[in-house]
Design goal:
- The complex is a heterodimer of chains A (252) and B (627).
- Chain A is 60% helix and 15% strand.
- Chain A is α+β, with helices and mostly antiparallel strands and 252 residues long.
- In chain A, the strands form 2 sheets. A 5-stranded antiparallel sheet of chain A has the order 7-6-5-2-8. A two-stranded antiparallel sheet of chain A has the order 3-4.
- In chain B, strand 4 and strand 5 form a beta hairpin.
- In chain B, the strands form 11 sheets. In chain B, strands 11, 13, 15, 16 and 17 form a 5-stranded antiparallel sheet that branches. In chain B, strands 22, 24, 26, 27 and 28 form a 5-stranded antiparallel sheet that branches. A 4-stranded antiparallel sheet of chain B has the order 1-3-5-4, with no helix packed on it.
- In chain B, helix 5 runs antiparallel to helix 9 and helix 6 runs antiparallel to helix 8.
- Chain B contains 9 helices and 36 strands.
- Classes of the chains: A alpha+beta (252), B alpha+beta (627).
- Chains A and B meet through helix 1, strand 1, helix 3, helix 5 and helix 7 of A and strand 36 and helix 4 of B.
């Protein structure tokens, strides 16, 4: 005779699983509906559908990609770049995304002079740029397990000790480097922003009637250093910093 | 000095005279002729409805109500007086109005008055009034119909009946026309008529139909309108609708919910629904509400259904390229820039404006696309126009004009198709720059120029699948399960590491290995000894005891087993700090085992058990002692 308690538990688990499927089904329907509106050039409605999915608390790289396309079609370059950046955090290896993102960035007006990066920075940038935060976390975890495993192999099989130690050394190096990269990525969460208005002034102080330090254009990426009232202190790619109104930026 | 002040004794006279002059002045200013006027609140009244008659005497106060002789065709009742005094620019006016209610008893055109009143011997006569009494309203053609009242007050006067309420609040639903084309947008109007009732919480009307698409009702308009001879407060709701299926249909009924505010019945009132003497049709009596003299009664009003014929678009005369646009439109076209190089884009802005169903309006079409690369237009829609911006690129400098642009639609007013044509637009296309040529060398071939290809640039199309969804802002490193896995891995590693260390020590450290193995070996041996004791095998018993004691001590202290004798035990005990008692026990065991070798029968079972017990105690003691 089956214990009724277990029967209830099984039913609850099954019910929850079915509910999750229905929920996932609704979200997919909204996605397809949004695609339909995009195909019929109704970009506002498509944006509304995509944004509705985001409001349910889920996201995906493809969703942000499509949203970026909608904003691009609407000639809202800032928001297009913003959504492409969000997509790059989730599907950084996607070629279509890379193409669209580069094209959108190429249309950004008067990009400030980008300081030259050294070789290490370029390598790290290329390497870490290919990974999502979760991907890098899993990779680091794998290196960590590999490190422990290599140490144990070296201990149990003395004939393989040399190779095991060498492998452990590499694993350790990659682990350290990966940790630095992951820390950097996590530190940049909610610290990067895109200019979403056509043009805005970065001022010396967080007030309206003060001198403008430099101008930011739609689609430019900045780093948020601090905030005060309705102002953000931002740093441009050429290390110039200034205060910008909140409404001109979207932090991601 | 001679001062021109009056003599003191004439001062009272002067003051009195001044006062009289002032009074006389005001009397002069305020004096006006008495006028007697008769007015009614409306010129047309339905049979059974009440009419308000005001008899106003201007320039007089405190004149009693004129007695009304029986008015032919009306039943009258006096309600009360109302006085008014005002001073405007120094002119004082006063008036008294006596108010009557007249209820018509017969239809037809009736004359009320003239009335007369006497004041101080003077007779004042009012004007007569002509009133038309019409039969009680049967409802408008557009769908005035029933309502459903709920919970009218129990104290309602027997004078209030459903017909009276029906005439005082109703819903009329109307359409611009009854025959429409498929997808043709027409306005629909729903009007709420209210006559001298307190209505509140009026909700938007509800109208459902499968065959029609009905837009949202906009902000309603409010005004007064005479209907059937009565003055009503009207709230008008409008929305656009279009039919989605052809055929004969019935639209409606439209429904509207509201609350009727009724005063609790008192002796003075005719009915609970009549306005307060000083109130208005939609007015609130704040104080009455505050003191709880009003109650709310929900009303659900419904209009009648309206038959509508939905015609499909005729096939005859349908132009080629007709894309379904319905309405009355105009077309404007602009193209810029007018001078380009071959391969450069030109943007054509086509604006379709007018009145109609803009959802059905598609982009106007170029008559010919030859010689152009044509892209899909971008669409912008405003209130009364739709703008299409289309990019075209001329292929070569031979192109001299943008072809004619046509837009066809079905004019619902005339019931015919129309085609709007914009003539071709002349443009100047100049030759593009020579392409950069690259020479390539082919083995055993002529040198051929290679043209550098110019590629267009745009964004890549959408992703057709949503990909893998994840919770926003939640990363793997934030999950407890991930960290649990890492810590578990570390524990496993540490456990294996420690195990290996121990294993290696057991191999390399002989003393440690023997020390570790000693108790296990002794335990197994003691078990065997116990068995021998139980089996009363004295000889093997003592052999086993001797062997176990010697092996245990040699393992425990890393000595040669053969070197353990009674004599060496003395030194061992001194060296390791073994207690005298235990030392004596060890020596006795050796002695007894020696004795037993030669005379095993000498030992009784009890003695054997003592020896066995001693051995166990020795092993226990040495295990516990940290040597």
């Amino acid at each position: 005779m089956i214990n009724p308690k277990w029967l209830i538990i099984c039913n609850l688990i099954f019910g929850a699983w079915r509910l999750s499927l229905c929920y996932a089904g609704d979200i997919k329907d909204s996605f397809y509906a949004a695609n339909y509106f995009y195909e019929h050039a109704d970009y506002d409605e498509a944006i509304k559908q995509y944004t509705g999915i985001l409001e349910t608390g889920v996201e995906s790289g493809n969703l942000y990609y499509n949203l970026g396309n909608c904003y691009f079609k609407k000639r809202e370059l800032g928001r297009a770049v913003l959504n492409y950046e969000k997509a790059r955090r989730l599907i950084p290896w996607d070629r279509d995304l890379t193409s669209n993102y580069e094209y959108a960035r190429s249309l950004v007006k008067n990009t400030a002079a980008v300081p030259r990066r050294n070789l290490a920075q370029m390598i790290c940038g290329e390497l870490y740029g290919r990974f999502t935060i979760d991907g890098l976390t899993i990779l680091l975890s794998a290196f960590y397990i590999l490190l422990l495993f290599c140490i144990l192999i070296g201990m149990f099989y003395l004939s393989l000790k040399r190779y095991a130690l060498a492998a452990a050394l590499f694993a350790g190096l990659f682990l350290s480097a990966g940790f630095v990269g992951l820390s950097g990525k996590i530190a940049r969460l909610n610290k990067e922003a895109i200019v979403i208005v056509e043009q805005t002034d970065a001022k010396f102080e967080p007030m309206d009637k003060v001198t403008t330090h430099f101008v930011l254009y739609e689609g430019m990426e900045v780093e948020v250093i601090s905030d005060r009232n309705n102002w953000y202190k931002v740093r441009r790619s050429d290390n110039k910093s200034g205060w910008v109104e909140n409404r001109a930026l979207s932090v991601f | 000095m001679n001062r021109a002040y009056p003599n003191f004794k004439f001062r009272p006279l002067i003051i009195a005279g001044s006062l009289l002059l002032c009074a006389g002045y005001f009397a002069f200013c305020s004096a006006e002729d008495i006028r007697f006027e008769a007015t009614v609140d409306r010129g047309k009244v339905a049979l059974g409805d009440a009419l308000q008659l005001n008899l106003t005497l201007r320039g007089a106060e405190n004149i009693p109500a004129p007695r009304l002789d029986k008015i032919d065709g009306f039943d009258s009742r006096y309600l009360g007086p109302s006085t008014m005094v005002s001073i405007v620019n120094g002119v004082v006016t006063s008036a008294i109005t006596h108010i009557y209610t007249l209820v018509p008893l017969k239809t037809g055109t009736r004359t009320i008055g003239p009335f007369s009143v006497e004041k101080q011997g003077e007779i004042y006569v009012s004007n007569p009034i002509t009133v038309e009494v019409i039969p009680a309203s049967s409802g408008a053609a557009s769908g005035r119909s029933s309502f459903r009242r709920q919970n009218l007050p129990d104290t309602a006067s027997p004078d209030v009946n459903e017909e009276e309420l029906q005439d005082r609040i109703f819903l009329i639903f109307s359409l611009e026309k009854r025959k429409i084309y498929l997808n043709e947008i027409i306005p629909l109007t729903i009007k709420l008529y209210v006559n001298r009732l307190n209505v509140r919480d009026i909700q938007f009307p509800v109208l459902g139909s499968d065959a029609f698409s009905i837009g949202k009702f906009g902000q309603p308009k409010q005004y007064r309108e005479e209907f059937g001879g009565a003055l009503y407060d009207v709230i008008e709701f409008t929305a656009d609708m279009f039919a989605v299926k052809p055929g004969e249909w019935k639209l409606g009924p439209a429904g509207l919910n509201c609350n009727l505010s009724a005063r609790r019945q008192s002796r003075r009132r005719q009915s609970s629904f009549d306005d307060d003497f000083f109130g208005g049709g939609f007015g609130d009596d704040l104080f009455d509400d505050f003191f709880g003299r009003y109650e709310l009664y929900p009303l659900e009003l419904k209009s009648a259904e309206l038959p509508i014929t939905v015609l499909p678009l005729p096939e005859e005369g349908k132009p080629e390229g007709f894309a379904g646009a319905l309405g009355d439109f105009r077309l404007e076209v602009e193209a810029a820039p007018p001078e380009v190089k071959a391969g450069d884009p030109i943007t054509i802005k086509m604006t379709v404006g007018g009145k109609g169903n803009f959802d059905s309006v598609k982009a106007p079409a170029l008559q010919s696309k030859e010689g152009f690369k044509v892209y899909e237009p971008q669409v912008k829609q405003k209130e009364n126009e739709k703008i299409f911006e289309q990019v075209i690129i001329p292929d070569s400098e031979k192109i001299t004009s943008i072809p004619q642009i046509d837009f066809s639609f079905f004019d619902t007013r005339t019931g015919q198709y129309r085609v709007l044509t914009h003539a071709s637009i002349p443009i100047t296309v100049s030759k593009c720059e020579e392409s950069r040529q690259k020479l390539i060398e082919l083995p055993q071939a002529q040198i051929l120029p290679a043209l550098e290809e110019e590629l267009g640039r745009d964004i890549i199309y959408l992703k057709s699948s949503p990909g893998k969804f994840r919770k926003t802002g939640r990363y793997l490193y934030q999950r407890a399960g991930f960290w649990f896995f890492q810590v578990l891995s570390l524990f496993i590693f540490a456990a294996v590491f420690m195990f290996n260390l121990k294993r290696r020590r057991l191999i390399t450290d002989r003393r440690y290995a023997r020390r570790l193995q000693a108790p296990e070996k002794a335990k197994r041996a003691l078990k065997e000894i116990g068995r021998l004791l139980s089996a009363e095998k004295t000889g093997p018993f003592f052999d086993a005891v001797f062997r176990t004691t010697r092996e245990y001590l040699s393992d425990r202290f890393h000595l040669s087993a053969g070197g353990i004798t009674a004599a060496t035990v003395e030194e061992l005990a001194k060296e390791k700090g073994i207690s005298d008692e235990v030392k004596e026990k060890i020596k006795k065991i050796f002695f007894d085992c020696d004795m037993a070798r030669y005379a095993p029968s000498r030992f009784s079972r009890e003695q054997s058990e003592d020896i066995f017990q001693n051995l166990k105690e020795i092993i226990d003691y040495l295990e516990k002692k940290k040597i």
